[in-house]
Amino acid sequence: MNHRFCVAPMMDRTDRHCRYFHRLLTKRSFLYTEMLHSNAILNGDVNKLLKFKAEEHPLAIQLGGSDPSSLAEASVISEEFGFREINLNIGCPSTKVQKGRFGAVLMREPELVSKCIYAMKRSVSVPVTVKCRIGVDDMDEDAYLDKFIKEVSFSGCETFIIHARKAWLRGLSPKDNREIPPLNYQRVYKLKETFPELNIIINGGIKTIKESIEHLNYVDGVMLGREAYDNPFILTEVDSEIFSEPMHPIRRTDILYKLLPYIQSEIDQGTKISHITKHLMGLFKGFEGAKNIRKYLVSLSNEVQPVDNYENFLSEIAI
Ligand SMILES: Cc1cc2nc3c(=O)[nH]c(=O)nc-3n(C[C@H](O)[C@H](O)[C@H](O)COP(=O)(O)O)c2cc1C
Question: Which residues, in sequence order, are CB contacts of 269 under 8 Å at separation 6+?
């Protein structure tokens, strides 16, 4: 699996509409779903939760949970749906998630994480990977992170996505936990030196393709979250700059054109158009008239219109 450039799992953001849109911008990036708890998959409407379009590949599902057998069962279902990788979330710091004993608190329990990974690996043939932090709270991020990675890799995990900051489990909101604990990229580079046989993907605070290329001198891949979502046009540089594919210049409006058949088919199936257009707001960031375009997209969201109307609108702008 090629993780040289990944778009991060983000709750309420990287849903199937967002991923379809991102795929129009980059063919080679590795995409992730939002986190889904294993129990949601075992007890919920799997078709609704897991369905996606083949065009979204390469695509991984991210699971949350800490019960080895539930995670194994959820992994089997996910593999049957066609996900190419199952990723376990060991990085989410929210209080609710901590109470459920999953996410970042599990960094304190490498044995349990190993059991989960082992159970998942045994049940599926696709890779099982981990997304974690460099530590939590006052944990010694040198010795302890090595111990965690070593133990979990023994259970069969070969790819670790590392958000290069600690999670502080008390007193910080999830949002603050993505901003306040300091970034420590060197620690992630060192991890790659210590475990050269593992795939180490770096995440956290990366904003440009240039920075991504810098990181690739030290690690196997980069993962971008907020910048990819807020400024999605950056993804049009990935295939040529990171994967050396031929460059195909594309305009922002071309992307909207390409999305129209998808929008129409989703509307026909009863999807609320705002569920798609909300992901497009960053596309015109920094452009003159961006505010008007966004206003227009919002106004479209209030009523379903035939696709012709969007085409008329798009033909009036060309950026
Ligand atoms: C709105 C939002 C939702 C997120 N949801 C998840 C999630 O479901 N699973 C996860 O592992 N990380 C989640 N994250 C964290 C990101 O995957 C990523 O690790 C973090 O934002 C740091 O990367 P960035 O600086 O490139 O955004 C979320 C981040 C944001 C902003």
Answer: none
